[in-house]
Write a structure and sequence with these properties.
Order of helices and strands: HHHEHEHEEHEHHEHHEE
Keywords: Biotin biosynthesis, Methyltransferase, S-adenosyl-L-methionine, Transferase
Helix content: 25-40%
Enzyme class: transferase
CATH topology: Rossmann fold
Shape: globular
GO molecular function, one term: carboxyl-O-methyltransferase activity
CATH architecture: 3-Layer(aba) Sandwich
CATH class: Alpha Beta
Strand content: 15-25%
Pathway: Cofactor biosynthesis; biotin biosynthesis
Radius of gyration: 19 Å
Structural class: alpha/beta
EC number: 2.1.1.197
Number of helices: 10
Amino acid sequence: MIDKNQLKIHFSKNAKSYDKHSNVQRKMKDILINFLLKNLKSSTIKNILEIGCGTGSLTKTLLENFPNSNITAIDISPGMIEVVKDKFKNSSINFICADIENINLNCNYDLIISNATFQWFNNLPKTLEKLYLSLNPNGILSFSTFGNKTFYELHECFKKAIQELHIKDSISAGQSFYTLQNLIHICNSIKNFSYMDMTTNGKEIYIPEYFPSCKDFLTSIKKVGANNSNKNHRCTSPKFIKKVMNLYDENFLINDNVIATYHCLFINIQNKSN
């Protein structure tokens, strides 16, 4: 369960440093847009909803690719909304500070798009259904998120540290993510989808990032506000964290840097009904 209040605090606190440290998210954004545009004509897109706009990297790309579209951009973080509004103060984009899981959508869209945000949802199936039902005929829901092998190195070090320190409490390195197959299954199994004409396409990509040490890697996560917002299973023991970092530096060093793997999932769902 994601603590949404903590999520707001983390992202707002790091909104001004986000662009400097969000290298993976920018790469995911480029892949997501290319995946979307592969068989899409920009003339078909008039109304766009962006979920989790952050500081506006995807927003800028949407403006470039769909200059005549009406864009509504939502983010849960007041700090992020403040930064992105300042960046696009001369645009007609409608920015809204809200949790997409807790608001009603009162209009339909030709494109609903989100980059690296859906992992923060507490009820993904219900939210996917709401978004799909807000698509116009031939509209597309396009999103990226993180897969189950994200930070597998860190998870391995957590497991080993738990064993070596004989810890009995249930703790984890962070969230559990879906496999691509699981995610596609969820998309295809949502209530109401059975009688709607839809197509779902997905792909996965692994993006490696390199850092001088595990400490630098963990710091980079905090700098984008993406540190653990789980309500349960947190561990703040200095002894345990030090053990994890030592194991990481010992076992995942490549050419004087440690590796951190991002498992990235990309989904397009199109409403084929007329």
